[in-house]
Amino acid sequence: MKRTALFASIALTAGLAAPAMAQEIGGVAVSAEDWVYVEDYCETLAEPLPEAVDESPSSAEELSTSSIDLSTLTRDDCAEAGLIDVPIPGETADD
């Protein structure tokens, strides 16, 4: 096998395998397909309360994916996963 063909097949295999990996949040492994929903939900939790109430999903069907029940996630879970920034109590923006 030619060297370029070998490298191309390795690169292709690595590129296809990476999206299939699950990520973890709140102690739950979330599939790559469902991670987008987790990111959106965490962004909703990060918004100021009045806007978040208007935009947050209202039914259990909207809060459930094949790998995680989004309603079990907290702002702290999202912050620990690095999806949102949560201010540290006592710190100001100037610190």
Automatic annotation (TrEMBL):
Highest taxon listed in the record's lineage: Bacteria
UniProt keyword list: Signal
Signal peptide span: 1-22
Ranges where the record places region Disordered: 50-72
Ranges annotated as biased composition (Low complexity): 55-72
Annotated protein name in UniProt: Uncharacterized protein
Lineage: Bacteria, Pseudomonadati, Pseudomonadota, Alphaproteobacteria, Hyphomicrobiales
